[in-house]
Specification:
Blueprint (H helix, E strand, L loop, with lengths): L4 H7 L4 H10 L12 E4 L9 E12 L20 E5 L10 H9 L4 E8 L2 H7 L3 E6 L8 E6 L3 E2 L8 E2 L4 E5 L2 E5 L4 H23 L4 H8 L2
Helix pairs in contact: 2-5, 3-4, 5-6
Length: 222
C-alpha cells in the first residue's frame, strides 16, 4: 500500500542522503540509491527542487519484443501526487517529452523520473516541471520502443546494480540524485532518519567548535 500523506509530509524534511543512510542501516542494498539519474528540470543540478511521492511505473521494451503494447496511453492515468517512473531499454531515442509533462502537470503529478532519455528540455523548464533522467535526446520513441506495462514492477536499467521499483514504492529525488524507499521499509526508516539527523546536527556543532570528526562521531553516532 502506498505511503500515506502523513508519511510523505514527514519525508519532506529529509534529503535523499538521509533516506539512504537509514536504508543502509536497515541492510537495504546501496541505500536505495538509483545511480545515473540526475536533475535536468527545472534547473540542472541546482535550486531547491525536491520530489517525493509514490511510484507510477511505466515499462518500455524494444518494439520487436513479443509482449503486446499497452492498450491506452499511460499519461492519462497518472494519479495526483504520483511520480512517473519510466523504464527504458538502452536506446538513443527519447521516451518522454514536453507534452507528457504538460499532461502530467495538469494531473498534479509530483514529477517524472526517466531511466533513459527524454527530450524537449526547453519545454520542461518552461513548465517548471521536475524531471530526472539519465540523459537527453531528440528522436521520439516511435519505431524503437513501446510501452508494455503500467504500474508493474520494473528493473533499474543499470549494469552495476539490480534493483526493482514497485508501484507505490516511495521515490525521493533532489540535487543528490534519486532513491527508492520500498513500502515495507518506510515505517522502519523514518525513525532512523530522525535519530541520525539529530546526531549529525550535534556533530556539526561540535566539529565547528573544534572537536575532531572521530571524537564527534563516537560521541553522537555510536
Amino acid at each position: 500500500m502506498p505511503a500515506s500523506q502523513d508519511i510523505l509530509s514527514a519525508l519532506q524534511e529529509y534529503t535523499t542522503c538521509d533516506v539512504s543512510d537509514a536504508l543502509c542501516s536497515l541492510g537495504f542494498p546501496h541505500g536505495g540509491f538509483l545511480p545515473g539519474l540526475k536533475l535536468w528540470s527545472p534547473e540542472p543540478q541546482q535550486g531547491s527542487t525536491k520530489i517525493i511521492g509514490p511510484a507510477y511505473t511505466v515499462k518500455y521494451v524494444p518494439v520487436d519484443d513479443p509482449a503486446p503494447k499497452h492498450a491506452s496511453h499511460y499519461i492519462d492515468s497518472v494519479p495526483e501526487g504520483a511520480i512517473i517512473f519510466i523504464s527504458s531499454p538502452k536506446t538513443p531515442n527519447a521516451v518522454y517529452g514536453g507534452l507528457m509533462s504538460t499532461r502530467a502537470q495538469a494531473s498534479r503529478a509530483a514529477g517524472t523520473i526517466v531511466d533513459g532519455r527524454f527530450r524537449d528540455l526547453q519545454e520542461q523548464r518552461a513548465l517548471n516541471y521536475p524531471v530526472f533522467a539519465r540523459d537527453v535526446g531528440t528522436a521520439p520513441p516511435y519505431g524503437a520502443v513501446k510501452v508494455v506495462g503500467v504500474n508493474v514492477p520494473i528493473q533499474l536499467q543499470s549494469d552495476g546494480q539490480e534493483l526493482t521499483i514497485n508501484p507505490g514504492d516511495c521515490l525521493v529525488g533532489d540535487l543528490n540524485g534519486v532513491v527508492v524507499l520500498p513500502q515495507d521499509q518506510v515505517k522502519k526508516a523514518l525513525p532512523l532518519m530522525a535519530k541520525q539527523g539529530e546526531a549529525d546536527a550535534k556533530m556539526a556543532v561540535a566539529i565547528k567548535e573544534g572537536m575532531p570528526f572521530t571524537e564527534a562521531s563516537r560521541k553522537f553516532r555510536i
